[in-house]
Each structure stands twice: as C-alpha cells, then as structure tokens.
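Reminder: ligand-aware prediction takes two inputs, not one.
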Amino acid sequence: MQRLLRRLLPALRPRALLAPPRPMALRPAAAAGGGGSPPREHDGLENVQQKKKIFAEIKKMTQQRKKPCPSAESVDSLMAEMPFANTDIEDEFAMHATSEVNREKKRKRTTGREIPEGSERKKTKKKQYQPNYFISIPITNPEITDGIRAVQDAIIQKDHRLSKAMVRCGSLHVTMLVMHLSGEEEIGIAVDALSDSKDFVEDLLKGKTVDLSFQGIDHFKNEVGFVKLTENDDTAVLTEIAETMKKIFQEKGILAGEGRAFKPHLTFMKLSKSTQLRKEVKKIDSSLYEDFKSQYFGDEVLHRLDLCSMLKKKQPNGYYYCESSVFIGEKHAAEPDDAELVSLSKRLVENAVLKAVQQYLEETQNKTRQTDGSPVKTEEAASGTKNESDNDNSK
Ligand code: C5P
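Here is what comes back for the chain with cytidine-5'-monophosphate:
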C-alpha cells in the first residue's frame, strides 16, 4: 500500500501548485528550521508521514515567487547609479543593525572571517544596511483607496507640485518590517522567515481576524502624510505580529527592523518620492488636508503579508514586486485544505485498490477458463477497463 501511495503522490498535487519552485542555490535556514507543523491526528490515511510530506510541499509551493529576477546584489550595485538612490530609501529609513546576532552573522557571511566590528561598520555601513526589502500588508479595500484618492486630489488642487509626492493607489500598504537582503541566499532565508511568520500569526489569531480601521490623517516631520490606524485591540495584535516578525527575521540573521518603534500607518504622500520636489517643498502644509483630518476611510482585514522589493520594477497594477506572499486565515484559492487533501487521497487509494482487485479477479477468471477450456471474455475485460478510465476522468 505504501508503494502504491507513493506512486500516486504526484497526482495529489493540484495542477496550479506544480509551478517550478523558486531556484535557490542555498537555503540553510530551510534545512535547519524545517520543523514544520505539528503532527495531525489520525484521519484514515494509512501513511501519515506521506501525508505530512504532501502538506509541507504544498505549503512551500503556495508561497509563490512571481517572476525570476536579477539578484538583489546586482540591483544594489545598480542603485548607486539611480537618481532615487538617495531619496526614497536611504533618507527615509535610517536602518541600523539592531542585534548583535545580526551583526555577527553578517560579518561572517560577508567576509568568511572575523573582522573588528568598528572597521566593518565604517567601511560598509552605507551599502549593507540600506533597506531594500520590506514586509507589506497590501491595502486594497476600494472604500479606503477611493477615499485616499479624494484626499490626494484635493491636495493637488491646492498645490500642483505635490502631485509628485502622491503614492499610487495600487501600492498603498502598511509596512510591517523593513530589512536589507543581499542576494538570493538571503532572499531565500527571508522567504522562509515569512513562512514561519504565517505559522506564528495563525497560532496567535486562532481563527480570529485582524481588522484594521483607518481614520484620520497625520504626518511624520511634515514630510510624510499618512492615514492613521485606529488604536484598539486589533492594532495591539498587529504590533505584536510586527515585533515577533522582527525577531523571527533577526534570528535567521536578517538585518531587519528600524531603530524606532513600530507605528502602523498608511502613507499616501511623501516628499522623498522626488528629489526635485524635495528641493522645492521643504514641508507639507497640514492645512492642505485639514478637511480630511478626522475622516473615516474604511477597514481592511489582514489577509496577506508580502515580502516586497523596494527596488525591483513594480507590477503593472502599481504594487511592489513580491518575492513571496503568505495568506492569513482564509484559504487561498490554490491552497487545498487538509480535509480536501485527505478526501482526495482516500479517493485515489480506493480507486487504486478497486482497480487492483478487479484486475486480480479478471486474471483468475481467465486462468480458470483457460484451464477448464472455456473462452476468454475479452469484451468483459475491455468494458471493465473502460469503466476504470471513466472513473479516472471524473477525478
Ligand atoms: O513604510 P512607509 O512607506 O509607509 O513609510 C513612509 C515614510 O515614513 C518613510 O519615509 C519612513 O521613513 C517614514 N516613517 C517615519 N516614522 C515612522 C515610520 C515611517 O518617519 N515611525
């Protein structure tokens, strides 16, 4: 039965999940941390180990990378040439190495030998610690995005120069964590950390949802305009998630997290989007959005966390390039749940057993007929085969 089940395993994978896994030369974190989910109760499948393997495989495959892309390192080196290199990223996120673990691991990874900490920081701080990735909660509720567009339009009406500062509706998001990833290996580690974060979040929520409520407008240093999140139990949970994710990423050696505390917000404009604008406008005048200062924009349920690149070309819908996404709470369309998998497995096993029994019966019948001289009923055998293939088609 085990051999049979093993042969049937490929058929258990829904077609959508058969996309080739992301190419990854080295994923030490995956190998080390591969604890996976705890064993589930017996459910009728004879080989529980096999089932766990299927679950783990499907889980990995549902965290899809969308497109092959140049390495973060090559993008990093290109960055120095780019006009926005010192605007949208470096000035915005003063990212410091936040833990000794990070620094230690980074030092070893980068050079392969120990070097004095001070000299390393002096030489490489600028390149290494510049954030180039972040964890994003996409904000897509049309009520919210339409409301924000109205605010943006009203501001632009009053000051045309600020059109350059506006965040496109397709890229509206709440940042959970910023980080620096240098190269495919670290991207792979971050993908695994995101997967671990999903397990943590789902354990924490136990089926409940995190409902983010957006109301009111505020600013950071009059340079960034954002919609506020109403402070409540849900934002407290969000903060716990952000802080734990930071730990999960840091424990894997990723340089993650800013020095400042997590303050969830939904940025809709920032001067740093344009170097030219920054020269022209030093401060955003809060009277420009006075009429919307207490406006309620809507709610968004946390259902997805994305690992996004700050530098790679955005998607056609305006949203960031995602290396990986995890879905929280609800079942993703391409992700069958446990019950579906078990029922599918059972059906496959039943059909295989039926087929084997039928074949056995036919063979013994034929043998008997051959030995006692009666003719072989080829028609019957053929019709039996047809029924089987009909069954197969209905699967
Ligand atoms: O993450 P997001 O794109 O919304 O950040 C927009 C800007 O807000 C960034 O420039 C970031 O540095 C700034 N910010 C800040 N203080 C915070 C969080 C973000 O100045 N607590």
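The CA atoms of residues 145 and 169 lie 6 Å apart. Residues 1-48, 64-92, 107-121, 375-395 have pLDDT under 50 and may be disordered. We will return to this case in the review session.
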